[in-house]
Amino acid sequence: MGENNLALKALPVMSDAPAHPPGFENDFLEELKFIKVKFLPPNTTPMLQPMDQQVISNFKKLYTKALFQWCFEVTKGTNLTFQEFWKHHFHIVNCLKIIDKAWDGVTKRTLNYAWRKLWPDCILGHDLEGLAHEQEPPVVDEIMSLGKTLGLEVNEDDIQEMVEEHGQELTTEELMDLHRKQQQEVMEETSSAEEEEEERKVEESLPSNKIRKICKMWETVKSFVEKHHPNKAVAVRTVNLFNNNVMSHFCEILKRKQKQVSLNRFLVKVARKEKRFYGANR
């Protein structure tokens, strides 16, 4: 900007999405007044917005191709199914790598051509008709070929449906509902973590000898009820219900404590052996 003696100006062009806050275009700090936001007219996104002029659709196809390629590389020569790959080998880091690879595949010509309806004077060259479907046929064919290699039934209609999926922008109500669901999930996770922490504290405060005493008392009560209750079926059903829903919890705590005691004893023995060994070899 300085080399050409041009004033610093920026013009973000945004769709008229309902999620944009009212007055957003006027809510800039004084030092950012060189930014002027312009919104597209309502209901014109598919016709005018540059990203909707082949850019997003080409990116989605390139992403699908890169995903299938990586899946093929991971599963080649193994017994992994596509479902197992998706469950155990696909995570956010790999997703970001695939996104980066797919975006690199979107050509400069495609990005320039995307402005043909909104700003036709900025289009470079004259090969506009040939550019409209520049990379679609080979990419689509490659996706179908890779899909068949992975044992998937993929055709052109499936790919087109994938490209058009989620094409409509979310309304403000839909975004708010999504935000509420995300908050609810966070609260549930937090509540679960707090419950686990509280349970851990209770477990640590229970002495093993006290749990053993209670378990022994329960065995006595259980034997008495099963032997003397006039309705055997009711007695067995009630005893099993209490045993499975109450006493099993304390039995599991006792098992964990016993395992920890055994581990501690083992570590103490190892430490003593090492101490004697190093002491004898000094």
Helices, strands, pairings?
Layout: E1 13-14, E2 38-39, H1 45-48, H2 55-75, H3 82-88, H4 92-105, H5 108-113, H6 128-131, H7 136-149, H8 156-164, H9 172-205, H10 208-228, H11 232-280
Parallel strand pairs: 1-2
Helix pairs in contact: 2-4, 2-7, 2-8, 10-11
What can you tell me about this protein's structure?
With about 280 residues, this protein is mainly α. It has three domains: about 1-40, no CATH class; about 50-165, no CATH class; about 205-280. Helix content is about 65%, strand content about 0%. It is built from eleven helices and two strands. The chain has helices spanning about 45-50, 55-75, 80-90, 90-105, 110-115, 130, 135-150, 155-165, 170-205, 210-230, 230-280; strands spanning about 15, 40. A two-stranded parallel ribbon has the order 1-2. Helix 2 crosses helix 8 (about 155-165). It is elongated, with a radius of gyration of 33 Å. The chain starts with 12 loop residues before the first strand and ends with a helix.
Query: Could you say which structural class the secondary elements and strand pairing correspond to?
Result: mainly alpha
Helix content: 55-70%
Query: What is the count of β-strands?
Result: 2
Net shape: elongated
| Rg, nearest Å | 33 Å
Number of domains: 3
The helix/strand order is EEHHHHHHHHHHH
Distance between the termini: 75 Å
Beta-sheet strand percentage? Answer: under 5%
Biggest sheet character? 2 strands, parallel
pLDDT average, as an integer?
79
Unreliable residue stretches: none
* Strand ordering within the main sheet: 1-2
- The count of helical stretches stands at 11
